[in-house]
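Two entries, shown back to back:
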Amino acid sequence: MTERSKPKIGVMGSSDSRSSYGESGVALSARQLGQAIAERGCVLITGATTGLPDLVSRSARDAGGMTIGISPAASHTEHVSEYLLPDDGAEVIIYTGFGLKGRNVINVRTCDVVLIVGGGIGTLNEFTIAFDEGKLVGVLEGSGGAADQINEIAMLSAKKERKSQLVFESDPCLLVDRCLALLKSLSSSTLQH
């Protein structure tokens, strides 16, 4: 990351849209997360999906932030018709044609910071990619699903040298702030070596 580039924060989480999040605590946290990312001048990366990432993206966009969705589909038509994903959740959608798992790799590799919010097996896949690749990972504690299991999962690989930095925080704004501070610290440390 250079001084002039905006930090890219990926939000990976539950795409479950079968039930409305409404004004639940998790939905409020997702909206606060999107707003915090935008207010700090970061670029938001999501999987161009439904559920919590969509709430974060819409909130970031409403707060004036740049939002990019990485689609598993090869085209707009496939994105909407086959994957049943929204085409208005992000300012820019990049169509990869790589399917869900391939899209997850691109999501993670594009980001400076990966934030985990709730989630299921897909989010867990994104976490393990980020963890294996030594990314800075922030976890929104109390958001349910995979997010609430990350610490235990990370401990399973305690014998392996850990390159990834993990930040756990229950407050969405503090999570963004702590991750950005650590990113800055890691970037300046890398520049000094």
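entry 2 starts here
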Amino acid sequence: MISKDKKYKTRNGEEVRIYATDGHSEAIHGAILYQGQWVSYNWSKNGAGGYHGRDLIEIKPRIKTKAYCIIHKDNSVSTFLKIDEAFRSVLIAKKLNSFKAVTEIEIDCEEGQELHE
């Protein structure tokens, strides 16, 4: 559902402002940034924009999260989202003489696409 609380762009990448989602003749009223100027535009309830690739596409916020990778001597990798779990894995790998390295990685992704445990 199209919402005034979310951010959108057109399918062809134009910036969008949404003014109303309860319009009578056209359900969604707003504007597109076209050649440096805001131009009034209407979309159907589902965000269809008619022509020229102007369907609405939600812009999801980007998030950054960290993961910790333990690299073993056989080059296998164990990945953890919590540092305390990674630390415990390093201790175990060292006891088993399989530890090679550990690294912290930063993941930049759309909200909802982050790693899950």
